[in-house]
Hints:
Distance between the termini: 31 Å
Shape: globular
Order of helices and strands: HEEHEEHEEH
Radius of gyration: 14 Å
Strand order of the largest sheet: 1-2
Strand content: 15-25%
Number of helices: 4
Mean pLDDT: 93
Structural class: alpha+beta
Largest sheet: 2 strands, antiparallel
Amino acid sequence: MEAALQRRVWRRADGRCEYCHLPQAGSQAAFEIDHIVARHHHGRTVPGNLALSCAVCNGYKGPNLTGRDPRSGKITPLFHPRRHKWSYHFRYEGGTRIGRTVIGRTTVGVLRINHP
């Protein structure tokens, strides 16, 4: 991946994981650039398909595009940082991220966002 594209992704994310909002500063794990739609699902290496991700979120997300909503059990899309607004789907309660919507709940569960 070109260095200019990597810098663009980092700047856009302001040094935070675009899934859990953990800041890179103070994190023990290196951050990675995630293909939101994985390459093996024909996702392209373009700004609109890239997100800055902490290693934990990226590891649990993998190539997944969907998961099961823990409340209804229905297959639901995961949070897409380029298409969805974080504050609409998530909120903080103390240090815990809470899914406000079916997409938020599903993403918190699949990515294990609140796992210690």
